[in-house]
Amino acid sequence: MPAYELFIGLRYTRAKRRNHFISFISLISMLGIALGVAALIVVLSVMNGFQEELRARILGVASHAQVSGVNNTLADWRAVAAVVGRNPEVKAMAPYVMGQGMLSNGQRVQGAIVRGVLPDEEDRVADIGSHMRAGSLSDLRPGEFGIVLGIELARGLGVGVGDKVVVIAPQGQVTPAGILPRLKQFRVVGIFEVGMYEYDAGLALVHLDDAAKLFSLGDRVSGLRLKLDDLYRAPRVSQEIQAMLPDDLYITDWTQQHANFFRAVQIEKNVMFIILLLIVAVAAFNIVSTLVMMVTDKQADIAILRTLGASPGSIMKIFIVQGAMIGVIGTLMGALGGVLLALNVETVVPAIERLFGVHFLAKDVYYISELPSKLMWSDVTVITAVSLVLSLLATLYPSWRASRTNPAEALRYE
After folding, report:
1. φ and ψ at 13, to 5 degrees?
2. Reduced to 3 states, what is the DSSP secondary structure of residue 310?
């Protein structure tokens, strides 16, 4: 691009115009782009934060992957652990026994998943130990029939540490009176709260040996829970481990176990991106009206440039420069503001809550009571690029119209 085209385009951008309305529309277009870009960056960062927080809470109780066999049992888990442990991506393993049961305390009855664990091994693959409200996982000892309950489950049963609950297993035992469910009294030794109602109200932990007795598994377990070095590589690592296992064993990872949930979150993020992108699009296409008015206002200037030898392409480039500057400045302002706000959401939101006396995420309603934020530079790059492209596209028609100006017609009334 010749220097004079860039010079004139920049001069038109910063010069004080006779028509202040055009200047006002240019400013509005610039601020609209900045607001749209900033809103996109902040909203996507908050959604990334929610997704990360939910994933951390779910995987703090669930596992990155788990190995099991036919009928949800594993006969020799130590041999399987030796095979699985050969994969360098596997950081830790823990056997588990899983079964459904009914917990009762007097007239109160609650259904729950009863999981048998080895406390020391469980701490290596899950974070329940760090979410204990009372007691400890280490209080689960074989033969003592202790139980750790989720806080909502404990409230539903009306029990605390030291109280007794009866666990009813569906596996029946044959008696002269017929088949009766298996009953066993457990003592509450701990209560945990992970912040996910699904687990706080529906999960009970007992020692692995006690669970095996309760569900009549003998020396068998339900499977192996795995913790991987990188949870995002779980599908690939699972395929590698599956190739090492016998045909009667299978492995599932967290992307399969919670696929619908995380897919819904991702779809919501994509939809929000498209909706908020319309703000940027509207602001970018305001550049069209700005440049159309500018072309009309500069008819005489265009005609003089044409008579001095400027080509239609040069005239077009002048106005492309002017429109692009509006888009670039607006995009950079929005990107800077959006990044700063996204990095300080945890500070800004509480300040707004104190100022207006409101609370966006009440603790008694939402699992996550603080607004999380995780800025991803890939999102910033995509948003900035899309905004610049939309701004550039918006300059094409007005610039083409300016290049079609007839010098004789433009100077007739000057």
Report:
1. -70, -40
2. coil
pLDDT, tens digit (0-9, with 9 covering 90-100), for 326-377: 888 889 999 999 999 988 887 877 777 777 776 665 555 555 556 788 888 8
Q: Which helix (H) or strand (E) holds 32?
A: helix 20-59
Q: Where are any strands of DSSP class E within 106-216?
A: 108-117, 132-135, 146-150, 164-175, 178-192, 203-207
Q: Are 392 and 330 in contact (CB under 8 A)?
A: no
If we measure between CA atoms, which residue out of 27, 40, 29 comes closest to residue 275?
40
Q: Whole-model pTM?
A: 0.71
166, 279: one domain: no
Query: CA-CA distance, 343 to 377, in Å (whole number)?
Result: 12
> Across the strands, what pairs with 191?
134, 149
The answer to whether residues 115 and 126 touch, using CB atoms and an 8 Å cutoff, is: no
**What confidence tens digit (pLDDT) does each residue in 36-58 have?**
899 889 888 888 888 887 777 77
Token pair, residue 53, equals: 């927080």
Label the pairing between strands 146-150 and 178-192.
Answer: parallel
Query: Helices 312-343 and 3-14, interaxial angle, to 10°?
Result: 60
250: part of which helix (H) or strand (E)?
strand 249-253
Rounded to a whole number, what is the distance in angstroms from the first to the last CA of the chain? Answer: 30
Q: Please indicate, yes or no, whether residues 41 and 12 belong to a single structural domain of this protein.
A: yes
378 three-class SS: helix
What is the rounded CA–CA span in Å between residue 149 and residue 37? Answer: 46
Question: Quick one: 243 and 282 in the same domain?
Answer: no
- What is the domain range of residue 251? 64-255
Distance separating alpha carbons of residues 116 and 70, to the nearest angstrom: 19
The amino acid that residue 61 corresponds to is V
Residue 53 and residue 293 in contact, taking contact as beta carbons nearer than 8 Å: no
Does residue 74 sit in the same domain as residue 214?
Answer: yes
The last residue of a domain, from among 255, 274, 292: 255
